[in-house]
Amino acid sequence: MAHTDPLSIRQLEVFVALVDQGSFTQAARHMGLSQSTVSGHIADLEKRLGVRLVGRERSGVTPTGAGEILLRPARDALRAERNARMAAAELTGLLRGTLALGGSTIPAVYILPSLLRSFREQHAGITVNLLTGDSTEVVEMVRQGDVDAAITGFKPRARGLRVERADGDELVLIAPPEHPFASSKAVDVADVLTQAMVLREEGSGTRLAMLEALGMKHNERELNVVCHVGSTEAVKACVRAGLGISFVSNLAIEDEVKAGTLAVVPVKGVSTRRDFWIVAREEDDISPAGRAFWEVTLGA
Questions:
Q1: pLDDT of residue 18
Q2: Model confidence over 219-231: pLDDT tens digits?
Q3: Which of 39, 102, 112, 278 could form a disulfide with 166 if both were Cys (CB 3.0 to 4.6 A apart)?
Q4: Any alpha helices (H) in 2-64, and if so which ranges?
Q5: CA–CA separation, 160 vs 276, rounded Å?
Q6: Could you give the 3-state DSSP secondary structure of residue 79?
Q7: For the domain with range 170-273, which CATH number is right: 1.10.760.10, 3.40.190.10, 3.50.50.60, 3.40.50.720?
């Protein structure tokens, strides 16, 4: 029979860690607990609720149907508890705690460090945890409450989100120095379409902006794509190796252009300016630290 006593925040924290880490050993290491303590918390939580929450298999631990149902409210409860502690600290003028921040590939490396410096100058008591992924992934992190805010490469349209322009960059076509394009003053889009191309993965803001700049919306079928890769560094490495040409952020190739290992090729009639966006949940659902980062970013 399920108990009616309030659930323990600690037990919910252990449950979420167990699902995220995929094993009792990893969850224990992640939380700094013994494996037996993690097992005890889960066993007590299952007893309190009267249901089995996780399945134990050779491949690891997976949530049961009941566990899947509990996962979202458990995350919400942990976020609310963290926000309550931070709000209490804010009342005393000692804003301390953790800012969970998401960043897509280019913002995480080239935009967020200076923003975080400004944020830390005003809020030295906050520790920042930065999670990275492609633009689609970091928007989902915000939606799920895994991060307080994120900087992303495209403007999301999902309900329940606050979105404002945070910064911008320009996509440039890059080629290896020995490529015929490298000595051209400019090339036509039609010329670009004849070349082997290296493309970012689905969900990438750079990929989306590149396809739109070439007039293809989200469709790559007119391109001669030789490979898809998961990062800007991988794109640059593939281009340097002569696999093909590609578009990357101008922020990411300054060193390579100076060293002569990559060449920038202008493309006639193509606008490659794009914006980066700060994304957070609605005003009532954002933590004090997330609100402070939002204000610092828009005031930078």
A1: 94
A2: 788 889 999 998 9
A3: 278
A4: 9-21, 24-31, 35-49
A5: 19
A6: helix
A7: 3.40.190.10
